[in-house]
Q: What sequence folds into this?
C-alpha cells in the first residue's frame, strides 16, 4: 500500500476503535458474584431471569467456592455480591451487609441402599463427631460396615448451619470425615458409596437418588421447615460491602426480595421470605 | 536350564545366522537373564497395553456419550447443577487459549533461539537466556499459574480482565493465555535452536559471500530452512497448551460459558472468563462441582482426539518429529 | 512512517532488538521468582521455617485461614505443612523409583528384543502417552480406579481398623502412584532408549566378543555408560511428578494425612495431599490474606524444589562426565 493510503486506513481504524470502545463499554454492566455452592442453583436461576428482564444489558458472572469465600471476596472488593448460606459470624470482615433472600434447610442423607428413615439427635451427633464408627451400632441400619462420613470444607455455610442446628453446636470430626468442596461433590460421594452418610442442602438432598433422613422423628421437607418443626434451616444471603442503594446491585437485590417473578423462582425448590431488612455484619 | 558353557556362542551355520539377524537365543541363557528378558518384554508390552487401553477406553466412552449435537450446543445455564447442554464453549475456549498462547510463544521462542544461536554476545547473557528457558521448562504449571495470579493483581494489568471495585478480577482468557504461552515456549525454542544449529554453515557463508548482512541472511536464508523445525516445535507446544489444566483452572475464572467482560466484540471475550475442554472435564468430574461424568467423558474424548491428531501431525511434519527411537546405525565402528 | 521500518535493518539494530526479546525471558523468570517470594513473605515472616514442620492438621489450619480479614493477626498464619511435604515426596519418590525400573526395562526391550515392526510402533505409542493431558489420567483415576479400589481391593476389615483415624475411600497412595508412574514413564523411556542407542557399537560388541549374551552386554556396558542420561531422565520425571497438581487432587483422597508405612498394606490406601494439589484445592479462597501467603509459600517451595532437582541431577552427572556418551 502506498503511504498516504496506509495512513488513512490506520486513521480510520483507530477512529472506529476510539468510538466503539466507550460506546460498547457503556452498554452493559457485569455484576460479579461468588460464594456458596448451596445457593448456586438458585442464584443461577435468578440472574438468568434478571438478565433476560433487562434485555441482556445487565450480565452476571457467577462463580462458587463456598460461603466464606464469597464473603472474603466481596470484602476484598473482588466481586460485587457474595452468596452466603450462613448468617454473619464474628470472624467475618466488618462493613458487610447481609440481605436474606430465601430460606433453605439441611438434611442428613444416606445412600439409597441404606434407607434409614430416622435418626435421633444423639445418633447424628455420635456419628458425625466420630464417636460411633460402625453401622452395626446404628439402629435403623441393616449394614455392618464402617461408616463413611462425608462433610464439607470449612468455607461452607451449609456446614455452619448443620453444626449449629442439627449437631446442636457440635463439630464434625474431620478426620475421619472426608471433606468435600461443594454440595455437588458431597452428593456424588453419598450416591456412590453404600456406606456413606452426609448432609446436604434441600435442593441437593431431596433427590430420588439419595435417601433423606428424618431428624428426631420430623421429616426433612418444605412443610416442616415452613411450620418450623424441623430445626435444620437457615437463610441464603446476598452479601455486599456497604449498603447498595440506587445502583445496579441494589436494584437486583431489591428485585429478588420484592418481585413476584423472583418469588416464583424461589418457590421451585426453596422457601421465599417476606421482606426483611438487611442484617449488618 | 542350560548348563552349557556360557562363554560358548550358539553354534549356527553362517546362513542361518544371517537370516536370524539379531534374534537372541534366550533358551541358552541363565535363569536370571531369562527372568530379566521376561521382565523387559512385560514392561514393553505393558506400556503398549496401557496406551491401547487408554485410547480404547476414551473412544468407547466417547462413542457412548458424545453426540454430534453436543459439539455445537452451548453449555446451558439451566437450573440443574447437572450441567446440561453441549460443549461448544469449552471447545471455543480451548481454541482461543491455544491461539493466544501460540501467538505469544512462537515469535518469542523463535526470536530468542535466533538471538542465542546467531548472535549470542555477551556470552554470559546467552547462557542466562538458555538457563531461563530450561527453568521455564522445568517449572510446574501450578507455580506458573500462581505467578500469573500474582502478576495480574498489579494495577497495570487491570485492563486485562474484568474491572472490580477492589482491583482487577485477575482471571481472563488474556491472562491465562499469557501464562500458558510459557508452557509452549520451551518446545518452540528448543526445536528452533536445534534446527538452526543443524543448518550447514555453508548456507550462511554463501549468503555472506553474496554481500547480505547477517540479519538479512537470517530472514531470507536461514529461517526458511528451519521452517519445519519451527512448525514441529509449535505443534508440540500446541499439544502441551491444549492439555494444560492447572493454569486454566486457576486463571480462567471457571464460568460455564465463555462470558465476555463487555460488549466490545473481540476484546470483551479476551477480557472475559470462560472454560476450556480441560477445565470442563475437571469441573464435571467428581473432583469438581459438576455431577455429570457423561459430559466429562464426551469432552475428554474430544480432547484426546485433538491430542492424537496433533501428535500425528508432529510425526508428519518434521525432522524432529521423526521416529523417536531410531533404527540402530549400521555403519561400521560408529 | 512504516517505510523506515521496512528498510533493511542494520545488524546492530537487529542484534539489539532480538537480544531484547530474548532478555524478556530472563526478565520473566526473575519476575516470577520475585513475585512468588514476595507473596510468600508474610508466611515466612510470621512462621519462620517452622511451617515446614509438623503439628496439627493442615486442613484445619488452612480452613481457619479462609476466614481471615485484610489485616490478620500473626496467629492467623499458623500452618505446619509437613504432611503435605511428606505426601509430595512420598508420591513423587515412589513414582520415580517405579517409573525408572519400568523405563529401563522398556528401553532395553525396545533396543534389544523388540522385533522391527514393534519397534516402529513403540515410538508413536510413547509419544502419545507422553502427550496425554493429565486431566484425562485423573479422569480415569477418579471414575474407574478409585471406585474399583474402594469396592474390590480395600476390605471392610481394613477400613474398620483405621476407622477412628481416617476414612479409606479408595483414593490414596496406590492409585496416585500408579497414575503418576504412567505419566512419567514414557518420557523417561524415550530418553533412555535414545541414549542406549547412542552408545558406540564397538563398546557393546566388545562385551559380546568376550562371551556375554546380548542382554548381559547391554546391562554391563550400555546401561552403565548412560548413567548420566538415566539420572537426567529421573530428575526430569521427578520434577514433573512433584509439580503434578491435577491428577493428585483428583485421586489422592482429599485429606492431608501422612500415610504410615507401619500400617502394612493399608499404607497404600491411605489418603494424602500434596503441596501442588492443596494449591489447586484452596485456590478459590486465595483472596483471604493469610491463605494467600500460605499458598504462595507452597509455590515457592515447589519452585525451589524444581531448582534443587535440576541442580542435583547436574551435580550427580558431573563425575560421570568421563563416560561422555550423552548428557
A:
Amino acid at each position: 500500500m502506498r503511504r498516504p493510503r496506509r495512513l488513512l486506513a490506520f486513521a480510520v481504524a483507530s477512529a472506529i476503535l476510539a468510538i466503539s470502545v466507550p460506546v460498547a463499554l457503556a452498554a452493559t454492566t457485569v455484576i460479579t458474584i461468588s460464594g456458596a455452592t448451596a445457593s448456586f442453583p438458585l442464584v443461577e436461576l435468578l440472574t438468568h431471569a434478571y438478565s433476560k428482564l433487562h434485555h441482556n444489558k445487565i450480565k452476571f458472572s457467577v462463580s462458587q467456592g463456598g460461603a466464606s469465600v464469597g464473603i472474603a471476596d466481596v470484602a476484598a472488593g473482588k466481586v460485587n455480591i457474595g452468596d452466603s448460606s450462613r448468617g454473619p459470624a464474628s470472624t467475618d470482615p466488618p462493613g458487610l451487609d447481609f440481605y436474606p433472600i430465601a430460606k433453605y434447610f439441611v438434611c442428613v442423607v444416606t445412600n439409597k441402599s441404606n434407607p434409614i428413615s430416622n435418626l435421633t439427635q444423639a445418633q447424628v451427633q455420635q456419628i458425625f463427631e466420630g464417636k460411633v464408627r460402625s453401622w452395626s451400632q446404628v439402629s435403623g441400619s441393616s449394614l455392618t460396615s464402617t461408616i463413611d462420613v462425608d462433610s464439607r470444607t470449612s468455607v461452607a455455610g451449609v456446614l455452619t448451619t448443620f453444626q449449629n442446628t442439627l449437631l446442636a453446636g457440635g463439630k464434625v470430626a474431620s478426620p475421619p470425615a472426608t471433606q468435600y468442596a461443594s454440595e455437588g461433590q458431597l452428593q456424588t460421594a453419598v450416591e456412590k458409596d453404600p456406606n456413606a452418610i452426609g448432609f446436604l442442602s434441600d435442593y441437593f438432598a431431596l433427590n430420588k437418588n439419595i435417601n433423606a433422613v428424618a431428624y428426631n422423628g420430623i421429616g426433612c421437607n418444605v412443610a416442616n421447615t415452613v411450620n418450623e418443626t424441623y430445626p435444620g434451616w437457615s437463610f441464603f444471603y446476598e452479601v455486599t460491602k456497604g449498603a447498595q442503594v440506587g445502583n445496579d446491585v441494589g436494584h437486583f437485590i431489591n428485585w429478588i426480595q420484592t418481585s413476584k417473578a423472583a418469588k416464583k423462582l424461589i418457590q421451585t425448590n426453596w422457601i421465599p421470605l417476606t421482606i426483611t431488612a438487611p442484617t449488618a455484619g | 536350564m542350560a548348563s552349557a558353557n556360557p562363554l560358548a556362542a550358539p553354534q549356527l551355520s553362517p546362513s542361518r545366522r544371517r537370516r536370524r539377524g539379531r534374534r537372541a537365543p534366550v533358551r541358552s541363557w541363565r535363569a536370571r537373564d531369562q527372568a530379566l528378558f521376561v521382565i523387559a518384554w512385560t514392561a514393553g508390552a505393558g506400556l503398549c497395553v496401557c496406551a491401547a487401553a487408554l485410547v480404547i477406553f476414551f473412544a468407547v466412552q466417547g462413542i457412548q456419550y458424545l453426540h454430534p449435537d453436543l459439539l455445537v450446543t452451548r453449555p446451558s445455564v439451566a437450573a440443574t447443577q447437572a450441567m446440561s447442554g453441549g460443549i461448544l464453549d469449552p471447545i471455543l475456549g480451548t481454541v482461543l487459549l491455544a491461539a493466544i498462547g501460540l501467538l505469544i510463544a512462537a515469535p518469542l521462542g523463535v526470536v530468542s533461539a535466533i538471538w542465542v544461536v546467531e548472535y549470542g554476545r555477551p556470552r554470559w547473557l546467552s547462557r542466562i537466556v538458555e538457563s531461563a528457558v530450561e527453568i521455564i521448562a522445568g517449572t510446574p504449571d501450578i507455580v506458573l499459574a500462581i505467578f500469573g495470579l500474582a502478576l495480574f493483581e498489579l494495577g497495570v494489568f487491570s485492563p486485562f480482565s474484568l474491572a472490580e471495585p477492589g482491583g482487577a478480577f485477575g482471571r481472563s482468557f488474556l491472562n491465562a493465555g499469557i501464562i500458558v504461552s510459557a508452557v509452549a515456549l520451551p518446545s518452540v525454542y528448543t526445536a528452533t535452536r536445534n534446527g538452526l544449529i543443524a543448518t550447514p554453515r555453508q548456507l550462511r557463508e554463501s549468503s555472506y559471500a553474496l554481500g547480505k548482512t547477517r540479519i538479512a541472511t537470517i530472514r531470507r536464508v536461514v529461517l526458511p530452512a528451519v521452517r519445519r523445525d519451527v512448525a514441529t516445535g509449535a505443534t508440540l507446544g500446541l499439544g502441551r497448551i491444549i492439555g494444560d489444566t492447572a493454569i486454566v483452572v486457576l486463571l480462567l475464572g471457571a464460568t460455564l460459558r465463555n462470558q465476555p467482560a463487555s460488549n466490545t466484540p473481540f476484546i470483551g471475550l479476551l477480557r472475559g472468563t470462560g472454560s476450556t475442554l480441560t477445565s470442563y472435564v475437571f469441573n464435571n468430574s467428581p473432583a469438581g462441582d459438576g455431577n455429570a461424568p457423561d459430559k466429562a467423558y464426551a469432552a475428554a474424548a474430544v480432547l484426546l482426539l485433538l491430542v492424537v491428531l496433533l501428535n500425528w501431525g508432529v510425526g508428519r511434519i518434521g525432522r524432529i518429529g521423526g521416529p523417536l527411537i531410531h533404527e540402530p546405525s549400521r555403519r561400521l565402528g560408529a | 512512517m512504516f517505510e523506515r521500518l521496512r528498510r533493511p535493518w542494520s545488524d546492530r539494530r537487529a542484534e539489539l532488538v532480538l537480544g531484547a526479546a530474548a532478555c524478556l525471558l530472563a526478565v520473566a523468570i526473575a519476575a516470577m521468582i520475585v513475585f512468588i517470594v514476595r507473596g510468600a513473605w508474610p508466611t515466612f515472616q510470621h512462621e519462620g521455617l517452622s511451617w515446614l514442620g509438623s503439628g496439627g492438621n493442615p486442613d484445619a489450619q488452612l480452613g481457619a485461614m479462609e476466614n481471615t480479614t485484610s489485616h490478620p493477626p500473626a496467629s492467623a498464619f499458623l500452618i505446619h505443612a509437613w504432611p503435605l511435604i511428606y505426601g509430595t515426596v512420598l508420591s513423587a519418590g515412589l513414582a520415580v523409583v517405579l517409573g525408572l525400573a519400568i523405563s529401563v526395562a522398556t528401553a532395553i526391550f525396545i533396543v534389544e528384543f523388540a522385533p522391527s515392526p514393534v519397534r516402529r510402533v513403540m515410538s508413536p505409542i510413547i509419544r502419545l502417552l507422553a502427550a496425554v493431558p493429565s486431566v484425562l489420567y485423573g479422569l480415569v483415576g477418579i471414575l474407574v480406579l478409585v471406585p474399583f479400589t474402594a469396592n474390590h481391593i480395600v476390605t471392610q476389615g481394613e477400613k474398620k481398623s483405621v476407622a477412628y483415624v481416617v476414612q479409606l475411600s479408595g483414593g490414596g497412595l496406590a492409585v496416585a502412584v500408579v497414575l503418576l508412574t504412567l505419566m512419567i514413564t514414557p518420557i523417561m523411556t524415550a530418553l533412555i532408549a535414545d541414549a542406549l542407542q547412542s552408545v558406540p557399537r564397538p563398546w557393546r560388541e566388545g562385551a559380546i566378543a568376550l562371551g556375554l549374551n546380548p542382554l548381559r552386554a547391554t546391562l554391563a556396558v550400555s546401561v552403565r555408560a548412560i548413567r548420566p542420561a538415566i539420572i537426567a531422565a529421573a530428575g526430569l520425571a521427578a520434577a514433573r511428578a512433584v509439580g503434578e497438581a491435577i491428577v493428585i487432587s483428583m485421586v489422592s483422597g482429599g485429606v492431608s494425612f501422612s500415610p504410615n508405612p507401619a500400617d502394612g498394606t493399608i499404607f497404600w490406601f491411605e489418603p494424602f495431599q500434596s503441596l501442588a494439589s492443596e494449591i489447586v484445592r484452596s485456590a478459590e479462597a486465595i483472596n483471604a490474606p493469610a491463605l494467600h501467603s500460605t499458598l504462595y509459600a507452597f509455590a515457592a517451595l515447589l519452585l525451589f524444589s524444581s531448582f534443587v532437582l535440576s541442580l542435583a541431577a547436574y551435580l550427580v552427572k558431573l563425575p560421570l562426565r568421563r563416560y561422555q556418551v550423552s548428557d
Observations:
- The mean pLDDT of chain C is 86.
- Residues 43 and 49 of chain C are 9 Å apart (CA to CA).
- The two ends of chain C are 50 Å apart (CA to CA).
- Residues 11-47 of chain C form the longest helix (37 residues).
